[in-house]
Amino acid sequence: MKQLFFLSFIPKLRSRLTPLEAGVFVDYIDVAADAVSNSPEGPAEEDEEMNAAIDLAEETLRKSLIHTAPEASKVPSLDIAKFLDFCHLESTDISREVIALHEGKHNLQGRVKHCFYGSVQFLSEHKEFVSEIAATPEDSLYDLVNSSVCTYWRDFLREHANEIDKDRGFWFRTLRIYLPLNLGGTLIGGGGASSTLKRVFPVVARMIRG
After folding, report:
1. Which of 84, 111, 156, 196 is 20 to 30 A from 174 (CA-CA)?
2. Prediction pTM value
3. Which value, in Å, is the radius of gyration of the alpha carbons in the chain?
4. 96 close to 147: Cβ distance less than 8 angstroms
5. Among 132, 110, 37, 121, which Cα is nearest to 76's?
6. What's the rounded Cα separation, in Å, for the pair 28 and 46?
7. Domain range spanning residue 84?
8. Separation between Cα atoms, residue 188 and residue 162, nearest integer Å
9. What percentage of the chain exceeds 90 in pLDDT?
10. Separation CA 37–CA 28 (nearest Å)
């Protein structure tokens, strides 16, 4: 039974793979060596060296694949600076934490950026969810995991999996690496950027709603 399960799973896995030269893969591993060889002492989101190594490795891989990756659709005229201004205006514990993370807390500014652009792109394609998500209390995380929106979000990440926005340095592949499986990502074991996404998602929705 286990063998049949894996045989049925392989075609699905192959459809998500990206061709990669051996030299590029070796460079990626070299950059991430410290992260993959040393177990973090604390929660993944609070391990600064781990996060820095992962981001550096992702940047190395992104530069290697940028010429072959399909271009992501241009998001609306919402940039992260305007988003951070909006966070300052809300001045809640949620928005203040987003600002702190973007300013370098735990070296998670890359996660804030990717969660922001991913949320903007999703809500520009699924405007029907803006009001629902924006209705999240300003001092609460958006419970994306238990929302009917989650299925659409996971499908959205799969559809755009290999796309990249070169101008903004945003890659859907990186966003998926940050997110656990139940949020459409590839991270095993939960954690990652799930709490960052749950903070960013409703703030972006309120910003779009105006």
Report:
1. 84
2. 0.70
3. 17
4. no
5. 121
6. 22
7. 2-209
8. 19
9. 44
10. 14
Could you please report the per-residue DSSP string of 71-82?
A: BPPPPPS--HHH
Q: Tokens 């500014």 — which residue? A: 109
Number of domains making up the chain: 1
What is the tens place of the pLDDT at every residue in 120-147? 999 999 999 999 999 999 999 999 999 9
Q: How many CB atoms lie within 10 A of CB 21?
A: 10
CA–CA separation, 3 and 174 (whole Å): 31
Distance, CA of 92 to CA of 140 (rounded, Å) = 9
Alpha helices for the chain (secondary structure H):
2-14, 22-31, 33-37, 48-65, 80-90, 93-102, 109-125, 130-134, 149-159, 172-178, 194-209
> DSSP class of residue 170?
E
Record the tokens describing residue 38, joined without a space: 């040393």
Q: Which of 198, 72, 202 is nearest to 134 (CA)?
A: 202
